[in-house]
Amino acid sequence: MKIAIFSGDGIGSEVTREAVRVLEALKLPGLTLLEGDVGAAAYHRHGRPLPAETLDMARVSDAILFGAVGDPSCDNLERHLRPEQAVLGLRSELGLFANLRPATVFAGLEDLSGLRPELARAIDLLIVRELNGDVYFGDKGMRETADGQREGWDMMSYSEGEVRRIAHSGFLAARKRGSKLCSVDKANVLETSQLWRDVMIEVAAEYPDVELTHMYVDNAAMQMVKNPGQFDVVVTGNLFGDILSDLASMCVGSIGLLASASLGERQTEYGTFGLYEPIHGSAPDIAGLGKANPMATILSVAMMLRHSFGDEDQACKVETAVARALSDGVRGGDLGGDLGTEAIGDAVLERL
Ligand SMILES: NC(=O)c1ccc[n+]([C@@H]2O[C@H](COP(=O)([O-])OP(=O)(O)OC[C@H]3O[C@@H](n4cnc5c(N)ncnc54)[C@H](O)[C@@H]3O)[C@@H](O)[C@H]2O)c1
Ligand SMILES: CC(C)[C@H](C(=O)O)[C@@H](O)C(=O)O
Ligand SMILES: [Mg+2]
């Protein structure tokens, strides 16, 4: 089994290093790790954030472990050269349209949530975020209006087929959990969302065992803080899912804890091909200081074991080691403690 490691920029390489230590400690038979350049690192070395060699490496791998991309020094480059294009390019080139972002409160962390402990305790939700469409991938540009002002524009759209396939991902995920699916949109204002809602209702007919509800995204943000325990699976578009998942992360305590899996249709001999990454970014404010919490990336390895290698036992082993570390009081700066990235990695490894 081949895993491509794309650690990227900022804390990306720091957190990925710890996740790779965990992966190696599992001694999976026939494991081969490949390393590729992405993001600002790739731009400086190859002139592009997603070099052809990296994409080729992704294509011959069974799964990808991704750190993070983004560097303030690149924020004024032409858009196609910016580091973020690496992760966007991998998602679209590899057809990884279903992004699973689970958010659950770990025992002992209720007091560290941004919410009151009694609200936080009930959080056990999964955001299913569409990843290949929406305003992210529409035409965009800068132009000049008739009265000589600069105008930025981005086209938002979803085709019926794009909504249908993520609807199935949402319903199937709900069926494996509490059978409740909340579709989040902005159908009161956007045609893109009206189509989204119509298609969700059509697909619901195939899943009579799953309860489908709808919520506008502004209300969903409010409800996530008011009563997050009401959510089981949330299915939503690319932009709303991006925002709601960062919100959910603080409801469970820290963005340093939220893992993700990005899946498509490709099957390998081991399972579903996927890209696994923490939901956070390259955190330039703490990059190079050894302060980042690597748990989100380590938990992404667990998701990889589950989805791409069908190894539920090893996935649970990794998740249990992280949960034990947290219940034993292992805390990085993001959770009010003072342990560094490597010490947190050590703590998880000791509990594997
Ligand atoms: N998938 C990705 O590669 C990805 C995701 C999000 C943002 N980004 C990029 O990352 C760069 C920085 O973005 P941002 O600052 O908006 O978001 P960010 O997620 O990088 O950081 C937000 C805040 O959370 C903190 N934080 C994030 N991860 C942490 C961790 N593991 N441990 C402790 N603290 C952590 C940071 O220090 C910062 O204060 C930008 O270039 C952005 O485009 C990349
Ligand atoms: C870096 C950026 C393109 C990315 C996104 O918006 O999808 C990030 O915020 C994420 O959540 O993975
Ligand atoms: Mg994001």
From TrEMBL:
Cofactor: record remark: Binds 1 Mg(2+) or Mn(2+) ion per subunit.
Binding site residues for NAD(+): 281-293
Keywords: Amino-acid biosynthesis, Branched-chain amino acid biosynthesis, Cytoplasm, Leucine biosynthesis, Magnesium, Manganese, Metal-binding, NAD, Oxidoreductase
GO molecular function, one term: magnesium ion binding
Residues the entry annotates as binding substrate: 91, 101, 129, 218
UniProt subcellular location: Cytoplasm
Record protein name field: 3-isopropylmalate dehydrogenase
